[in-house]
Amino acid sequence: MLETERLTVHVGGVRAIDGVSLNISAGTVTAVIGPTGCGKSTLLRTINRMISLLPSVRIEGDVRLQGASIFTSGLRVTDLRRRVGLVGADTALLPGTVMDNMTYGLRVSGQWRTERARLTRVEEALREVHLWDEVKDQLDGPAEGLTAGQRRRLTMARALALGPELLLLDDPAAGLDPVATQRIESLIYTLRQRLTIVLVTNSVRQAARVSDQTAFLWLGRLVECSPTARVFTTPAERLTEDYVTGRCG
Amino acid sequence: MPDMLGAAVLALAASVAIAVGVALTLQRVPQGLGGLLRRVLGLAGTVPTVVIAAAVLTALSASGVAASVGANPMLLVVVVVPVLTMQCDRIFHGVTPPLRDAAAALGAGSLSIALTLVLPAALPAVAGAALASGAQGLGALLTVGLLQAATGSQPDTALLSPGGEAFGLGPLVFIAGTATLAVSTLVGIYVEDFAEGSSWTTPIDLVIAWLSALPPLVYAVLLVAVVTATGRTPPDASSAALLFALLLGPHAAMAVRSALATVPASLREASRALGASRRQTLRSLVLPAAARPMVRYLTGAFTRATLEWLPFVAIGMAVSHPSALPSWVRTLGVRWMPLPGLQVHGLATAPPLVMPVVPPVIWLLAGLSLVAVWLRPTPDSARERRS
Description:
The structure holds 2 protein chains of 2 kinds.
Chain A: E1 2-11, E2 14-24, E3 29-33, H1 40-47, E4 57-65, E5 68-69, H2 77-83, E6 84-88, H3 98-109, H4 115-128, H5 132-135, H6 148-160, E7 166-170, H7 178-191, E8 196-200, H8 204-210, E9 213-218, E10 221-227, H9 228-233, H10 238-244
Parallel strand pairs in A: 3-8, 3-9, 6-7, 7-8
Antiparallel strand pairs in A: 1-2, 1-4, 4-5, 9-10
Helix pairs in contact in A: 3-6, 4-6, 6-7
Chain B: H1 2-28, H2 31-46, H3 49-62, H4 74-93, H5 97-105, H6 110-153, H7 157-160, H8 169-194, H9 201-213, H10 216-229, H11 237-261, H12 265-273, H13 278-319, H14 325-332, H15 359-375, H16 382-386
Helix pairs in contact in B: 1-4, 1-6, 2-4, 2-15, 3-4, 3-6, 4-6, 5-6, 6-13, 8-11, 9-11, 10-11, 11-13, 12-13, 13-15
């Protein structure tokens, strides 16, 4: 589904990612863990090329989605970003209503041209994140009126409405209370049945709970990428063991 | 000249001291009173320095006080302080709340926070603002001085008469203003939303900021020099229109940039993450979100450019052909003072050319400034907190 091959990313002259090679299978949840500043978010933003919005970025190596390089000149980056959704804790709500947020991506994509088709798509996406019942009566209300947990799920629904093949989640439960966190995690568990998910998280326990495989980054390098059970029980690297057990990082 | 320079430097130093003192005090006054004072300062700071200079010279001449910078450095202080105080207040307010909170959590009082944290952090910006305000103030005083000279001693026509032959000025100014607004808007949008990462960004940034900080007198003198060098003596209506465009352009570009900058980067990023292109993001998200501040800031830019431009037209008209005034005055819907009585000399009669003589335009522009200031978000508004 997704492969990175000796991926190196320089941001502003600093090597944020250093020769990372990953292989992510379809229909799995891959957790990326590591201390702050180790390149987790940079890796996600490289996969859907949001990284190129930053000035002074240089990328070496390759990222292949369904076997095709995402850096191919013929590939439209806007199409890539619809196929590879990115949702983070700091993803902003757009100005306007819940409906405005949900239909924005659909409108700019030029697909789902009719109002009816859009509404159907919106309802499907909101149901998928278990938000429909909570907001169906306030679709025309301001999105900023939602709770933090609802906002987070709204940003996920907004991305899901575009029908992505791959969903990148950048610490989606950051700053949420345990109940809202549990909802997000159960949502990830549900979505894995039809989507491939890459989850960046600062919570080692969350990675253990929801992911199929775990990649551990340290100072921009990939230390280990194995099935989650193995990473948390018999890691191949001493550094991984120290990190997941809390002895370092 | 050295006397004047020395006096100007002293006056500027005094202005900085007063402005910084007032702005630092403002940081410590309660929210409600502070907001009111800021609105008053905002209103005063929006009035172009040339208008303040004209008003001050009028008052001084009426009371018989010597009214030149060399003879009375307080002139520059009075002209510069309102603008500089407003800028200092904004600069100080730009020192982020987390820094202040951190200092307060460490037990610092508001005075020591202001002196040990806010002032050092803001010092370079305050210095820049002081220099710019000083240049603007001096330029304004010289402009009004030229206006006095124009009405009092018939100086060289070629140097002082952009707009002297001013038939058809209204349409020309309209065309120049519209074209300038269009170009400036495009430049502002390009620099703010399309030029990131380009090697041209920084030079364009610098040039726009520099052009907008130049005193209008510089534009006028350079323009007259260029026009007369090309053999068109005296400068005509098209020169006056071009001067208006030159004064408006940088202000308008800065206004557009400022308006676009009110849209948080996170919104643009969210839009791009949803597959929108840069243009789609601009069209469907950034421009609608920035429309209100853009109208507000452009109104301010237009008002400022017009108020800066009027004295030069007045100089040109007074110097070259007073009898030609009615044609363009009628075009703009402006009343002039009794034309046969334009043969006036001395200080007391000069300022009326700038202010009371054109009451409809002045009041309209003053009203627009007031609206622009009233609509402008205060630094602690919800919009900026969200940003």
